[in-house]
Amino acid sequence: MTIYDTIGATYSNSRQPDPRIAAQITAALGDVQTVINVGAGTGSYEPPQTVLAVEPSTVMIAQRPPGSAPVLRAFAESIPVADDAADAVMALLTVHHWTDLEAGVAELCRIARRRVVILTWDQNIFRQFWLLHEYLPEAAAFDDARAVAVDRIAALLGGARVEPVLVPDDCTDGFLAAYWRRPEAYLDPVVRAGISLLAQTGEDVLRPGLDRLAADLASGRWYERHADLLNLVQFDAGYRLLVADL
Q1: Do residues 143 and 126 make contact, with C-beta atoms less than 8 angstroms apart?
Q2: Is 230 left (phi over 0), alpha (psi -120 to 50) or beta?
Q3: Which domains does the chain have, with CATH numbers?
Q4: Which residue would you say has higher pLDDT here, 43 or 10?
């Protein structure tokens, strides 16, 4: 059983691909003809040339839309496909769930002929995000234990280009920092259920911070404190896209 077999039942309710982030991922993949999506989840951001999705959670697999690429139920650390199986392999917001990073990255490189694309985050930047820094430090501490340094991943890939992935103010993919300018969204349990960090930290731990956020929104204190955010249309929360040519 994976963590998403427990927390992923309503994942697709709040996690819909954002077209601007999708465009950046598509550009990173380039002109490849075949793609394998590792840690594929419900299939977000899979380009039409995806020939295989690799996902261990049956709960997530069940939420993949009709017409999606065929799914192989397996873990990133041991993918039962041939060497050089596709032009490119992508792994989006998944490496922090792996039990053996070195083995997982080695598998990505083994099955990709030309390119590996990984979406992750820089924890040094991420933990300064206002939600974690001001209201949910317990969640930030949980992430400290599972976050993977971008430099470490790049080194395992043998070098990689690193691109910031800026979050639009109306981002449609409800990952943790998606609502950076829509703070009231974090009070919605459906939104929190689609964010693995919050779902894993647990409601009892989160409740005091969420109550403080609700009070600051009601009083207007949050808007005063974060007036600088209200005029922005995109935000750097620390998400990073690594692109490695093999």
Answers
A1: yes
A2: alpha
A3: 3-245 (3.40.50.150)
A4: 43
Q: Is 241 exposed, middle or buried (0-12, 13-18, 19+ CB in 10 A)?
A: buried
The model's pTM: 0.92
For residue 131, pLDDT beyond 60: yes
Q: Look at residue 101 and tell me whether its pLDDT is greater than 90.
A: yes
Q: Residue by residue, what is the 3-state secondary structure of the chain?
A: CCHHHHHCCCHHHHECCCHHHHHHHHHHHCCCCCEEEECCCCCCCCCCCEEEEECCCHHHHCCCCCCCCCEECCECCECCCCCCCEEEEEEECCHHHCCCHHHHHHHHHHHEEEEEEEEEECHHHHCCCHHHHHHCHHHHHHHHHHCCCHHHHHHHCCCCEEEECCEECCCCECCHHHHCCCHHHHHCHHHHHCCHHHHHHCHHHHHHHHHHHHHHHHHCHHHHHCHHHCCCCEECCCEEEEEEEC
- Our CA angle for 7, 13, 16, nearest 5°, is 110
User: Is 34 in contact with 43 (CB distance < 8 Å)?
Assistant: no
